[in-house]
Design goal:
The chain is of the alpha/beta class. Helix content is about 30%, strand content about 30%. It contains 6 helices and 12 strands. The strands form 3 sheets. Strands 2-1-3-4-12-11-10 form a 7-stranded mixed β-sheet. It has a 3-stranded mixed β-sheet with strand order 5-6-9. A two-stranded antiparallel sheet has the order 7-8. It is globular.
């Protein structure tokens, strides 16, 4: 399986390493042509307004819209969650939300860099706990009817799925635990 990792900005290398470790072929996606050659996609953490701008200037925004509408499996982490949300409550006026998951998010809701934290998460479908790494993480403020909440922190959704799209407010690629990526690959293989 060829899994694209959006490689415009952010923690894309760590995701590629996790996918490679699980036996998938990770492909760094920087152009619409790269996107056309993958079966699924990971949108990494990073700076969401910068990533939104780079999606537009690279021409990937329209190609990504098309692939999302066609049901391509996608995993979005941190900034990836923000990009895939229906609504970004505190984004810049020119920041585009892709609307792939019916959630409203608030950027950096858990605080600045110095307020970053780790906590054990209970994730539906995973045995035991998962080490959640939260770095300037977004918060889900609203969850639409068609969205399944997979994990919460303090009664707030931090991992959700809608259709073929899964989003996390945390960074599974920094946890040392490959189970979130493994579950994504398993789900993507069934699509």
């Amino acid at each position: 399986m060829k899994v694209g990792v959006l490689a415009l900005q952010g923690a894309f290398r760590e995701h590629a390493e996790a996918l490679d470790a699980l036996g998938a072929e990770a492909v760094l996606v920087k152009t619409p042509e790269h996107l056309a050659g993958v079966d699924s996609l990971v949108l990494p953490g990073g700076e969401s307004t910068t990533m939104s701008h780079l999606l537009a200037t690279s021409g990937l925004d329209e190609a990504l819209d098309d692939r999302l509408r066609a049901g391509m499996p996608v995993l979005g982490t941190c900034a990836g969650m923000i990009l895939l949300a229906e609504e970004v409550l505190d984004g810049r006026p020119d920041q585009r939300a892709l609307g792939a998951v019916d959630i409203s998010v608030r950027r950096n809701a858990y605080g600045r860099q110095r307020e970053s934290f780790e906590t054990d998460l209970t994730i539906d479908g995973l045995a035991g706990t998962f080490p959640g790494v939260f770095i300037r993480a977004p918060a889900v403020e609203r969850v639409g009817e068609g969205v399944t909440i997979l994990a919460e922190v303090d009664r707030r959704a931090v991992m959700c799925r809608q259709g073929t799209v899964t989003v996390c407010a945390f960074h599974p690629e920094l946890s040392g635990d490959l189970r979130v990526h493994a579950e994504f690959l398993k789900e993507a293989a069934t699509r």
